[in-house]
Design goal:
The protein is an alpha/beta fold. It is built from 6 helices and 5 strands; from the N terminus they run βαβαβαβαβαα.
């Protein structure tokens, strides 16, 4: 897929409750860790199914989940990778993100193509997109777009 839409974790890099080198749900699913998530979302369902020990703080809006992390009411923000990327890039002095391995609720991004497009042409589009992902071009475009959004907000 071009850019997977999946929950990732954002947190304060100086938070002592987050183990150094954490890469999985198991690493952060420990007593005393609070995860903030927007109630009723796909991220809520994914993290609720995976977490057994940590506390899940379900809040009604994404803004409230981010404020919970900023205020240290929560240790980790569980949100989609695109919104967490906006958040971490706008707070580079303290916020970091990890993509848990294995991924939680991995979902590909789809493209709409003309209905009359031949199977061969669809395959050419797929090959083109795979090459762009493999060379890092897509990630660079995403970072550039995030930087532009953040610049507009200043």
């Amino acid at each position: 897929s071009l850019h997977d839409a999946l929950p990732i974790f954002a947190f304060n890099k100086d938070n002592p409750r987050i183990p150094a080198g954490a890469t999985s749900v198991a690493d952060i699913d420990v007593e005393g860790v609070t995860l903030a998530v927007m109630s009723g979302t796909a991220q809520d369902k994914a993290i609720s199914a995976a977490v057994k020990t940590a506390t899940i703080l379900r809040l009604p809006t994404n803004d409230e989940t981010r404020l919970a992390l900023i205020s240290k009411r929560a240790d980790i923000l569980v949100d989609a990778n695109d919104t967490n990327q906006l958040f971490t890039q706008s707070n580079p002095d303290w916020a970091v993100a990890i993509n848990p391995e294995p991924a939680l609720a991995k979902q590909g991004v789809a493209f709409g193509l003309p209905a009359g497009l031949s199977a061969q042409d669809v395959e050419v589009v797929n090959i083109f997109l795979e090459e762009r992902v493999a060379t890092g071009h897509v990630e660079a475009l995403i970072r550039k777009a995030v930087d532009q959004v953040l610049a507009q907000g200043q």
